[in-house]
Amino acid sequence: MAKKLFVKTYGCQMNVYDSARMADVLAPLGYAMTDGPEDADMVILNTCHIREKAAEKTFSELGRWRAHKQDKGGDMIIAVAGCVAQAEGEEILRRAPFVDIVLGPQTYHRLPEMVAKATRAADLNGKGGAVLDTEFPLEPKFDFLPEARADGAAAFLSVQEGCDKFCTFCVVPYTRGAEYSRPQAAIMDEARKLVEQGVVEITLLGQNVNAWHGDGGRGFGALIRELAGIDGLARIRYTTSHPRDMDDDLIAVHGEVEKLMPFLHLPVQSGSDRILDAMNRKHDRATYLRLVERLKAARPDLALSSDFIVGFPGESDADFADTMALVREVGFVNTYSFKYSSRPGTPAAMMPDQVEEAVKDSRLAELQTLLWDQTRAFNQTCVGRTMAVLLDRPGRRPGQLVGRSPYMQAVHVDDADGLLGRVAEVRVTAVHPNSLAAELVDVERKRA
Ligand code: SAH
Ligand code: SF4
Ligand code: F3S
């Protein structure tokens, strides 16, 4: 009989990819996905450690799962995966002793063994103890994962992992480990298999995705050109990139490869050189602005997104004003902005001049107002325009489908029956707070 698996995911797209792969790893053991933890035989919490709030969610969620486990008379395997597991594995087992398995982001190919051990421990009335595996094994997990199963027309494909940049605020180099690039052949193989399963859009993932490098010094731009040659693959995206790794070839690829979507998430964090230096970002304001200029020269309709941190230790009103000025100068859409969150063990946590919470709050509000205005203004310019949308999800209304524009906007399209999983030409008719409304152009031709 099939066993039921429930996976809950916090954090970035890498975690979303990892969650899907953990389900792939467990499928041969008879685990099929279910929608909630209540009736599951196994539950996995895939956690994020990036900010304090994200990490706290782990323990509150686990508290709720403990109750489900008790309701089932203890007959439920609880696993904690991801970046909190990597950073605080022992602490999790101490604070939540009902957890059976703790595993890091680099060991989930070993889940079958861990499940076997946890089951044996349960047979011993828990006396076998919990399983903890947060190593950084020498063998990369990708070599041991089963084939990826596609879930819809858009897919993530992890090509690079880890980070050697050590920004002073960030836990990722500690939770994900050193930078690693998957071999090109394995990436091409996974991409082709996804396309065979009906995938038309692939988003290449990595904590520093554009730091990817292949044999013979091949760079990330070359990988994108190669992927663009796959018939049936209509769209390519990538995230998250680091300004430092944006080389000449990759910039050129934005102008030359039609399948590469005109949207780029390029985190800047701050507009102040003093703060960028304290953050150890390895780029300054001028370098970032020059990069944006070159990218837009290569691809004039490129829309840019970014990440921002306000209230980094020592950030003055003048530093924050530099961030606001940079935002005005560049113009962003669909951004993410955060209050600096002190992370244990990172250099910035030890820096003097930590900024008061109230100051962070007001700076964040001011920045988000500006960013939101920019997103809204951009969305408004899209009304009346025709664009290609990948319709990959059913909408709320009958006959309605939802998809992504080339610029990552969510687009709702009515009377779109039969077009699920297809790229359709649509004309944008209205802007809603978080999405666009559009109608099909030339319906008959598109359905043919
Ligand atoms: N690799 C990516 C980002 C990974 S984390 C990059 O280099 O940009 C995603 C975002 O979380 C970061 O871009 C940053 O804006 C934010 N972030 C990371 N650590 C943080 C912290 N300690 N406090 C607040 N925001 C943080
Ligand atoms: Fe974190 Fe910086 Fe690495 Fe991005 S580049 S993952 S922000 S350390
Ligand atoms: Fe969070 Fe780990 Fe991603 S800390 S943002 S889940 S790499």
TrEMBL record:
The cofactor named in the record is: [4Fe-4S] cluster
Residue span(s) of domain TRAM: 380-442
What does the entry list as the binding residues for [4Fe-4S] cluster 2?
163, 167, 170
Reactions catalysed, semicolon-separated, are: 2-thio-N(6)-dimethylallyladenosine(37) in tRNA + S-adenosyl-L-methionine = 2-methylsulfanyl-N(6)-dimethylallyladenosine(37) in tRNA + S-adenosyl-L-homocysteine + H(+); N(6)-dimethylallyladenosine(37) in tRNA + (sulfur carrier)-SH + AH2 + 2 S-adenosyl-L-methionine = 2-methylsulfanyl-N(6)-dimethylallyladenosine(37) in tRNA + (sulfur carrier)-H + 5'-deoxyadenosine + L-methionine + A + S-adenosyl-L-homocysteine + 2 H(+); N(6)-dimethylallyladenosine(37) in tRNA + (sulfur carrier)-SH + AH2 + S-adenosyl-L-methionine = 2-thio-N(6)-dimethylallyladenosine(37) in tRNA + (sulfur carrier)-H + 5'-deoxyadenosine + L-methionine + A + H(+)
All copies of domain MTTase N-terminal, residue ranges: 3-120
On cofactor binding, the record's note says: Binds 2 [4Fe-4S] clusters. One cluster is coordinated with 3 cysteines and an exchangeable S-adenosyl-L-methionine.
Q: Where in the cell is it found?
A: Cytoplasm
**Can you cite an annotated GO cellular component?**
cytosol
Q: Which Pfam families match?
A: Radical_SAM, TRAM, UPF0004
> Do you know which CDD domains this protein is assigned to?
Radical_SAM
| Gene Ontology molecular function terms on file | 4 iron, 4 sulfur cluster binding; metal ion binding; tRNA-2-methylthio-N(6)-dimethylallyladenosine(37) synthase activity
Annotated EC: 2.8.4.3
Q: Which UniProt keywords apply?
A: 4Fe-4S, Cytoplasm, Iron, Iron-sulfur, Metal-binding, S-adenosyl-L-methionine, Transferase, tRNA processing
Q: Does the keyword Ubl conjugation feature in the UniProt annotation?
A: no
List residues of the Radical SAM core domain: 149-377
Where do the annotations place [4Fe-4S] cluster 1 binding? 12, 48, 83
Q: Which domain of life is it from?
A: Bacteria
Reported function? Catalyzes the methylthiolation of N6-(dimethylallyl)adenosine (i(6)A), leading to the formation of 2-methylthio-N6-(dimethylallyl)adenosine (ms(2)i(6)A) at position 37 in tRNAs that read codons beginning with uridine.
Subunit-level organization = Monomer.
Q: Family assignment?
A: Belongs to the methylthiotransferase family. MiaB subfamily.
Under the heading NCBIfam families, the entry gives: miaB-methiolase, MiaB/RimO family radical SAM methylthiotransferase
Record-given protein name: tRNA-2-methylthio-N(6)-dimethylallyladenosine synthase
Species of the source: Magnetospirillum aberrantis SpK
**Encoding gene (name):** miaB
